[in-house]
Structures are given as C-alpha cells and as structure tokens.
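Proteins fold reproducibly. Take a tokenised chain:

. . .
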Amino acid sequence: MIELIDVVRTFDGQRVLDGINLTIPRGKITVIIGKSGAGKSVLLKHLVGLLKPERGRILIDGFDITQAKGRQLQECRKKFGVLFQGGALFDSLTVFENVAFPLREKTRLSAAEIAVRTRQRLAQVNLSQEMEDKFPDELSGGMKKRVALARALIEEPEILLFDEPVTGLDPPMTNTVFHLIAKTHQEIGYTGVVVSHDIPAVFQVADYVAMLHQGKIIAWGSPAEVQANPLPMVQGFIRGEVNFLEG
C-alpha cells in the first residue's frame, strides 16, 4: 500500500530521516515506535505530502506522492484519514458537528444522509446519541479521542494515520482507545499507520512494528520479532530504560 524508498529530510542541519526504507502492507496496522523527537510525526507528514523529502520516493498504491501537486495531490490525499495527536476538534462545534464536518465540506450528501453516517461512526466508537450535542470542553480526554477517531473514519479512508493516539491518557483509557482502533480496523479493513511510544500497550494493535532511531529504521517485523530483536537500543526502548528513551 505504501512504500518509502531512501527518504531523506533534514532540519537545521540534522538528518531527521536518513535514508528511510519501509514497506507498509495493505490492510494491516503498522506501528512506528521510537523515542520522542525521533522523527515519527515528521514521517507521517511526508506520507500525506505535507512535507516533501530532499531525496527519495514515497509510493501510495504505486503513485509517487513526492512529485504530486495541485489536483493530483488532493486526489491522493482522499485516501487518507488522520487522527491528530491532540484530537484537533473544533471547540465551537458540537460532537455531532465535528464528526459530520468532513462530509459537509467535501461531499454533496443530503443532511439526512450525513446524519445517518455520522451516527453510525459515533456508535462504532461507543458514543451514544446523548453525546451529540456536547462540546469538546465538556468531554474527557478519552471521549475526545473517540470523537476524533469517528471523524477520521467518517469518509471511509483506505489509509488511516494515528499520530500518538493515546498521549495524555491513563492506562485504562489507553487500552480502551487501542481496543477501538483494533475493533474499527477489523470492521473496516483500512491500512493503519500508528505512531506511538506507548510500550507495550501499542503492540496489542500492531500487525507489524518498525522502530525509528537516528533517522533510520533499525528494526522491523511482527511485534514478537521486534520484541526479540537483540539490538541494545531496541531492548532498552522496549524496557523503558531512561537512557534509551531520552538519549
């Protein structure tokens, strides 16, 4: 579904992405792990063409998004849904209006059709109609994540990107959000890319795991294969050792 080939990106003289090669299989969830500041979110922005590499290619279904402009780029982006790190809900809109927003802006569906699809997505993330008229500042952190997930799913994307989807949540709610990601993936079958440093909880949703360190993918495979990887950096990160998380 997605292939990165020798992708390089530099900021302020530092190579954040240093020759990235990575294949993201269709219909699976690939989790990208690594310490804070490793470039995980930068990598996501390259996938949707928000950033362009200095070198390399990024193929989406065989189409090189690094060369796309204008209408071509917009058409390619239609394949994507995104759950942003902070949820990125509109404070002035209700839960219902936040989830319905992409359909109102990008489609010609009737109000009735939009209402049906919006309520289907809210139900899919276990939010009842009683929540529809609430505003984001009336919601808990976990509720906001659910609303954001419903909005990311509303256009039925082929590819769904999750940028640190459980940041700021307590362990029980972290598990709940990861369970919802796994549930919606099973129901819809999208290709998922999850950026996270929440170990080991994130392994519960992963089909494949890639570890990004110093601009390179240093480990890739199933969750079991990555957890068994003998590299000290991989083992130190998985065990949560401070020097590996911050160094």
User: Anything to note?
Assistant: Residues 120 and 130 are 14 Å apart (CA to CA).
